[in-house]
From TrEMBL:
Gene3D superfamilies: SP0561-like. This is DUF1858 domain-containing protein. InterPro entries: DUF1858, ScdA-like_N_sf. SUPFAM superfamilies: SP0561-like. Residues 2-61 form the DUF1858 domain. Pfam families: DUF1858.
Length: 70
């Protein structure tokens, strides 16, 4: 189960399908395609940070990630 304290890079490395789902969800996730940003910020940014920075409701965002990870 993905939690608010998981790092986005770890989540996307474990569940690569989520990247496509996030890109389809909102253009706010376009930075996932930028390797420089992803490789630096992704290692530190937690799911709750990503939700806050993209304006996502944390609970809804976690539900989305957990529903689409497989």
């Amino acid at each position: 189960m993905i939690t608010e304290d998981d790092k986005i890079a770890d989540v996307l490395n474990q569940y690569p399908i989520l990247k496509e789902h996030l890109l389809q969800r909102s253009p706010k996730f376009a930075n996932l395609n930028n390797p420089i940003i992803f490789n630096t910020v992704g290692k530190f940014a937690r799911i709750k940070d990503v939700a806050k920075n993209t304006g996502e409701d944390l609970t809804e965002f976690l539900d989305f990630l957990n529903q689409h990870k497989d």
